[in-house]
Amino acid sequence: MKRLKTAKSILSMMLVLSLLTIAFTSMIYAKTDDTKAYKDAIERDVKKVLINGFSQYYTINNIQVDFHDIKINDISVKADLHVTMNTTLKAKKVEELPYVKGMLKKVNLEDFNYESKAKTDEAVLKANKDKLKKEQLEKVSKEIEFKFNDLKQYINKADDNNFFLTVTADVKDHKIVQDSIKILAENVDTLVPIEELLPKSSEEMEAEGFRDMELALDSQEQNYSPALYASYDRIAARDYANKWSTNPTACYDHGTTCGIKQARNTWNNNTYPYYTELCHNDCADFVSQSLHAGGIPMDSTWKRGTPANTTLAWVNTGSLKSYMLDKSYWKASNYTSAAAGGVLYTSSSHVVMIVKNDTITRQFSGHTNDRNQVNYSNVSGYQYYILWD
């Protein structure tokens, strides 16, 4: 009898354990299903925002959304994600870009079609002979020549756009409340609403081109020595910055709480060995490397060697800027016109390389954090420098 009771007790306990296991497993699956549903909802919303924002000017070839962190509770969800969107400009020639239309409108060339420098000089003179001085005519031709040569590289070329986003939303009854979704985008060293990284209207971009041509006409001739710029290859500098930067989502050796995303194993360590003296702050070091790859020569004030032989101007953001301005290697530019191979300083003295400006989208590559071809927008306090006249 005792054995029978014992057996019944064991069976009862096994039944209870089975029921608890089933219940626990169901809870796990429910939570997993909620997480997937939340991710799907966030991904749909992010894609919708990007497609609506960019599709007027670009063919959207692909959008890849990678979640690298998601936190969920009963009332909210927060996710960090990296989005790569591959696009191709819809404009089939440079003249179709709104910014360029504005440039040309300022100098009475609304029907201009680029053929050659000689043809440009002829068209500029014909349209502005009695309106502009000789030096202004030369400036106009120079601006048009530079812009058309720069922008033609983006026509009919598929290119990646990278975004680092933080998405938050309210949750109710295991579903995301759709109108509560907020998307913030990393913008070099700050977070801004995703809308600030979306293209402006064609009217706004046309006005930017008009204004930049106006500034070029009104600017006084600068006394820069051509020898300082003759050997600078801004495309080589851009290519270096893109080659030796990545988009990691975790810290390399500081742990996940350091706040700095790096992948030092992808750096150009053979040429520029990592020094512990740099700690994780190598943004100026990386920009110096890129500028040197573009042809700016080292000297006793600006050089990279052993820790004892590396100068402050190479690795310190403030000293780098002072050196480049003192040497007249840099001149001030602005958000709308600074092109690939230029340099961007934030208000916190972070510095990165500008690697793209197709007049609709701007991108940077840099270190601290490691970032590769990431879209950015203008922020009050940002400073832009170029190394060509």
From TrEMBL:
Transmembrane segments: none annotated. Keywords: Signal. Residues 1-30 form the signal peptide. InterPro entries: Amidase_6. This is Putative amidase domain-containing protein. Residues 231-377 form the Putative amidase domain. It comes from the Bacteria. Pfam families: Amidase_6. The lineage of its organism: Bacteria, Bacillati, Bacillota, Clostridia, Peptostreptococcales. It comes from Thermotalea metallivorans.
